[in-house]
Amino acid sequence: MGLLRFAGRRMAHFLAQPRRRQARPPTSDPQLLARTLRRGDVLLVEGNSRFSTAIKYLTQSTWSHAALYIGEEALEPGGPRRPMLIDVDVEAGVRRVPLDAFADGHTRICRAYGLPPPVIDQLVGFMRARIGYSYDLKNVFDLARYLILPPVPGHMRRRLIALGSGEPTKAICSTLLAQAFESIRYPILPEIETVLGHAGGREQQREILHIRNYSLYTPRDFDVSPFFEIVKPRLQLGFDYRALQWSEDGNP
Known about the structure:
Helix content is 34%, strand content 25%. The protein is built from 9 helices and 10 strands. α1 (2-15) crosses α5 (137-148), α3 packs across α5 (137-148) and α4 crosses α7 (173-183). The chain is globular.
């Protein structure tokens, strides 16, 4: 068991290394991003590591990482207050991390609609209670297989990233977030069943939502969910395309 844990950590370190050629410039100024985020927002990140490459391929998505914004806090006792998130790192596990850790990356804000402050407190509390949990190293082995095996058929991709030990003190980023939103009964991408019923002598349709297993969720699901608003920092300032200044010769 100790040997497997050692091998898993070594592999996690290898997969976490950035691939400089795949880095993209951020689409939002870090200070503008910080001003736009609200407590309880999900921040999606396009990573540039080997690990991120596997996630993006298997989910056919731009996004390889997801974190929950928890507001401004001090990282260390007595330190300055900074915009903070809770995420799951492949090496460090569940942790608090300052927003500037993702300042150089391509990001997207996904905001759950209509959550009152007490419910957001519950959501943040769920994540905070799991700080210190380790990353599910079995998931590391499963993803590493992608790097050495032939391409994975489309119908198997979601199942591949859902593999893992299932131990309660281990997690991956999208799985833990899915559990957190499940704890407050907020939908991400549930299976929707339409049923016919009768009310007042008239036939009516209604939707029944079935929660999918949290292990099947990926960062992409927060982006495509009909229940999360996509918030773009530049548009929040009252964007006016007529005020843009273009170069005289039309060249960038």
